[in-house]
Design a protein that fits this description.
Layout: H1 6-21, E1 24-28, H2 34-44, E2 48-52, H3 77-88, E3 93-97, E4 116-119, H4 124-137, E5 141-144, E6 156-160, H5 168-180, E7 186-190, H6 204-207
Parallel strand pairs: 1-2, 1-4, 2-3, 4-5, 5-7
Antiparallel strand pairs: 6-7
């Protein structure tokens, strides 16, 4: 008898599906990276998921973010995401946190509850705090690096951050992680050089200037 996860079960097997159903994943940031990460997790059969993002949907999000439509402009991304999840599978346990994750708010989250953490936020201080909190709790984490003004999807790689190159955000992260005593961090990054925006006028954040506290990834 088929169900909504029948095709996934063919790939992962019954034991794999049971493991997914028993897992809780936290996704920090619901922009161009995080929204699609949530979608993939939900459609794969995750049992519980935490959504963390303080932003509301704006019109400029529509070109790249899953939850951004004319109807959702002005609404909290976590609320729109939760509604979509329930439409896909009402049995998934969803917790929403409409707050910014920063060192000052890190104590709101008990990482011992998580089986995996997805870092899709775009502030350096927040990314470092997430990496440190996950390391302290012994929870696996994957962190997204900068991808703004890049066009080649084949240039993406998954690697340890200390094996990365080209990406300016990863370079700064490596330095700061060493200072924190963190020796490994799985990341998604691109070796593609950024494309100069039409009309020029690149600011520091778009260039991925390490002096900026923002990554070049549009969130």
């Amino acid at each position: 008898m088929q169900d909504k996860y029948a095709r996934t079960r063919l790939l992962l097997g019954e034991a794999g599906m049971e493991k997914l159903a028993a897992s809780r994943v936290a996704v920090f940031g619901l922009g161009g990276v995080g929204s699609y990460a949530v979608e993939a997790l939900v459609r794969s059969g995750i049992g519980a998921i935490d959504l963390i993002d303080h932003d509301t949907v704006c019109e400029s999000n529509i070109n790249r973010q899953l939850y951004a439509t004319e109807k959702t402009i002005g609404r909290y991304k976590v609320d729109v995401a939760a509604e979509r999840i329930k439409e896909i599978d009402p049995n998934i346990k969803v917790r929403t946190y409409p707050i910014f994750y920063l060192p000052e708010t890190a104590d709101r989250f008990d990482f011992s509850e998580y089986d995996y953490v997805v870092d899709a936020i775009d502030t350096l201080t927040g990314k470092l705090a997430l990496a440190a909190q996950a390391a302290d709790a012994g929870v696996p984490i994957i962190s997204s690096m900068g991808a703004g003004n890049k066009l080649d999807p084949t240039a993406f790689e998954v690697a340890d951050i200390f094996e990365t190159s080209i990406c300016p955000l990863a370079r700064v992260m490596r330095r700061e992680l060493r200072r924190l005593g963190i020796t490994r961090l799985k990341v998604v990054y691109s070796k593609e050089c950024f494309v100069c925006p039409v009309g020029g006028g690149i600011d520091r954040r778009r260039r991925g200037d390490p002096r900026s506290d923002r990554s070049i990834a549009p969130a």
